[in-house]
Design brief:
By secondary structure, the chain is α+β, with helices and mostly antiparallel strands. About 35% of the residues lie in helices and about 20% in strands.
Length: about 525
C-alpha cells in the first residue's frame, strides 16, 4: 500500500484509556470516538442518541495536561472537560486521556470497601458517589441518558472537589444543559448533583494519568489510513508556523478545530472529507490575552474560553454565553471556527460585530486583518483565499466600555439553534442623551450576519428616546428582508428584532433604566426560586 511522501513517518493514534496507553492504527481519520468505544474497545456504557452533539447520551470527559493549575477545569495537573463522543474524530484524542462511565467503577474498586453483607468471592463494590446519588434521588428511569448525565456530573464533581466548593443548583443546571432526559423532568437529577457531595468522596488519581501523558510527548501527529484505494491523512501540527506551511501545501485539505460542525458533515451528510488538518494541538492558536488596546482571541480558543474572557470584561454577555449550545460543545468548539463557518445564525458574529471586532487571516507568513463585517460576502461565502486560514480575532477594549447587550431567541431555552441572535452596543455623548455611536448586529435576519446600517443611522446623533427608537425600528425593515423557515417566520423575525431594539432602550435609557435582573430569565428560573424559598434567603 502506497502513501504520499511525508517528512514524518506515519504514526499511530496514542492516548490514555482505562489505565493504560492505547495505540490505534488502521481506522479512518473520521471514525468517531463513540464508534471506537462501542465497536472496537467494547466500552458500551457510552450511548448513541442523536449522533449530532445535541442529546448528551455520548458525553465523555477528555483530560489534557493542565498548562495553568488555576484555569477553569484544572484538576491536579489535568484539564478535564466534557465533550460529545459522537462528533469527535478519534485522531483528536492523540496525546490526551479519555474517561468514560466505565472508569468510575475502576475508581470505586480501588478506593471503596466492598459491602459488608456481600460474600467475599462475590464482593460488590459501592457505586461512585455520582452514580449512588442518581440511585438515591431516582435520577434514572429508562436509563439510556444516564451515562451521559453521570459523566457531566463527574466532571462537575471533580472540579468542585479540587476547589473545595459545591455548585449551586443553577450551576448544576448550567453544567447539565447539554444532557437531555425525556423521563425524569430533571429535578431528581439536580437533586443527585447536590447529593453526590454528601457521600464519602472518591477522587480521580491523576498522578498516573499525568505521568502517562507526559511520557507520550505529543510532538504532533501525522496519521493516515486507507479509504478504498485512497489514503487519507490527518495532520495535527504543533506550531502555527507548521500549520501555515501545511495549509499552503494543502489548500484543499479540510481544516478541523472542534468538530462540532464538521462532525455533523460526516454523521448526517456522509461527506467525504479527504485529508484533514487539525488545529486543536496548536497552542498559539488557543491564546486569549490582552494585547495593548485589544483582547486577542486565537482562532483555536474554545468557545468556553473565548466567551469567558468576554464576559469577564462585559458581564452583560453572560446570558448568551450560557445559552450558546452546551458545555460539551463549548469545550470542543472554537470561536474562530464559529466565525469562519459563516452560518447566518451563528451566535458569536453578532456579538463580535457589536464590539467592532476584526478578523485576522494568515497565508504562509502573510497576515492581514479586516473588520469582521467585511469578511462575509454572501451565504456561506467569505474572504478566505486558497491556503489562508483564520488565525485570530481582535476586540478593541474601548468598544467593551460601551453599553453592550446580546439577546438569543430560540424555541428551546438551553442548547438550541437561534432563530435570531442580536449583538448591540451603544455609547452616549458625555453628559447628554445623544447617541454618539451604536452597533446593531443581527444573525438570522439575512444570508449573512450583518449590521443594521439604516437603523444605526437613524439613531446616531439623535437623542436616545422612545421616539428615536420608533424611527430605528421602522428603518430595520429597510435593512432586512428575513426568510421564513422551520425556526421562525419572516414576520416573527422582523417583529422580534424590532422588539429587541426596544428592550435595549429599556435597559440603557438615561432615566429609569431596567436592570439586567429585571429583564433576565435567570432571576426567575423555577429551581432558583425553590432554593431561595427553602433556604429563606
Amino acid at each position: 500500500m502506497s502513501t504520499e511522501s511525508s517528512s514524518n513517518p506515519i504514526q499511530p493514534i496514542r492516548f490514555f484509556h482505562r489505565g493504560k496507553i492505547v495505540d490505534v492504527s488502521g481506522v479512518h481519520p473520521t471514525r468517531s470516538v463513540l464508534d471506537w468505544l462501542r465497536e472496537d474497545a467494547r466500552c458500551t456504557g457510552t450511548k448513541e442518541g442523536c449522533n449530532e452533539g445535541d442529546c448528551g447520551a455520548c458525553t465523555v470527559v477528555i483530560g489534557e495536561l493542565a498548562t495553568d493549575a488555576h484555569a477553569p477545569g484544572a484538576v491536579d495537573g489535568l484539564q478535564l472537560q466534557t465533550v460529545n463522543a459522537c462528533i469527535q474524530f478519534l485522531p483528536t484524542l492523540h496525546g490526551k486521556a479519555l474517561f468514560t462511565v466505565e472508569d468510575l467503577k475502576g475508581q470505586c474498586a480501588s478506593q471503596c470497601k466492598p459491602k459488608a453483607e456481600a460474600p467475599a468471592k462475590h464482593a460488590v463494590h459501592p457505586l461512585h458517589p455520582v452514580q449512588q446519588a442518581m440511585v438515591d434521588c431516582h435520577g434514572s428511569q429508562c436509563g439510556f441518558c444516564t451515562p451521559g448525565f453521570v459523566m457531566s456530573l463527574w466532571a462537575t464533581y471533580e472540579h468542585h472537589q479540587a476547589e473545595g466548593t459545591q455548585p449551586t443548583r443553577q450551576q448544576l443546571a448550567d453544567d447539565l444543559s447539554g444532557n437531555l432526559c425525556r423521563c425524569t423532568g430533571y429535578r431528581p437529577i439536580l437533586d443527585a448533583g447536590q447529593r453526590m457531595f454528601d457521600l464519602p468522596a472518591v477522587r480521580l488519581d491523576t498522578a498516573p494519568v499525568v505521568a502517562a501523558l507526559t511520557a507520550l510527548k505529543n510532538d504532533g501527529l501525522d496519521y493516515a489510513a486507507p479509504l478504498g484505494a485512497r489514503i487519507d491523512h490527518f495532520h495535527a501540527p504543533k506550531t502555527i508556523a507548521q500549520l501555515a506551511a501545511l495549509r499552503v501545501q494543502k489548500p484543499r485539505a479540510q481544516l478541523l478545530a472542534g468538530s462540532t460542525d464538521v462532525g455533523l458533515w460526516v454523521n448526517k451528510q456522509f461527506r467525504d472529507l479527504g485529508d484533514i488538518i487539525y488545529v486543536g494541538d496548536v497552542a498559539e492558536m488557543k491564546t486569549v490575552e490582552e494585547r495593548a488596546d485589544e483582547l486577542y482571541i486565537g482562532a483555536g480558543a474554545s468557545l468556553e474560553a473565548a466567551f469567558g474572557a468576554l464576559v469577564e470584561r462585559v458581564p452583560s454577555l453572560a446570558d448568551v454565553w450560557l445559552r450558546f449550545a452546551s458545555p460539551p460543545i463549548r469545550h470542543a468548539g472554537t470561536m474562530g471556527g464559529n466565525v469562519a463557518n459563516g452560518s447566518p445564525i451563528g451566535d458569536s458574529p453578532p456579538v463580535l460585530m457589536s464590539l467592532d471586532a476584526e478578523i485576522e487571516l494568515r497565508r504562509g507568513d502573510v497576515v492581514r486583518r479586516m473588520p469582521l463585517p467585511d469578511f462575509y460576502l454572501d451565504y456561506m461565502k467569505n474572504e478566505l483565499q486558497p491556503g489562508e486560514f483564520v488565525q485570530g480575532l481582535a476586540v478593541p477594549l474601548a468598544a467593551m466600555r460601551r453599553q453592550v447587550r446580546a439577546y438569543k431567541i430560540s424555541k428551546r431555552f438551553d442548547c438550541d439553534i437561534s432563530a435570531l441572535c442580536a449583538g448591540f452596543a451603544i455609547e452616549l455623548e458625555a453628559g447628554s442623551d445623544t447617541v454618539k455611536a451604536v452597533r446593531l448586529a443581527f444573525g438570522g435576519m439575512a444570508a449573512t450576519v450583518k449590521r443594521a446600517a439604516n437603523a444605526e443611522a437613524a439613531l446616531v446623533g439623535k437623542p436616545w428616546t422612545q421616539a428615536s427608537v420608533a424611527t430605528a425600528k421602522l428603518a430595520l425593515a429597510q435593512d432586512f428582508k428575513p426568510l421564513s423557515d422551520m425556526r421562525a417566520s419572516a414576520d416573527y423575525r422582523l417583529q422580534v428584532a424590532q422588539n429587541l431594539i426596544q428592550r435595549l432602550w429599556l435597559e440603557t435609557r438615561t432615566q429609569d433604566a431596567l436592570s439586567l435582573e429585571e429583564t433576565s430569565v435567570w432571576s426567575v428560573m423555577p429551581h432558583v426560586v425553590a432554593k431561595v424559598a427553602a433556604e429563606g434567603l
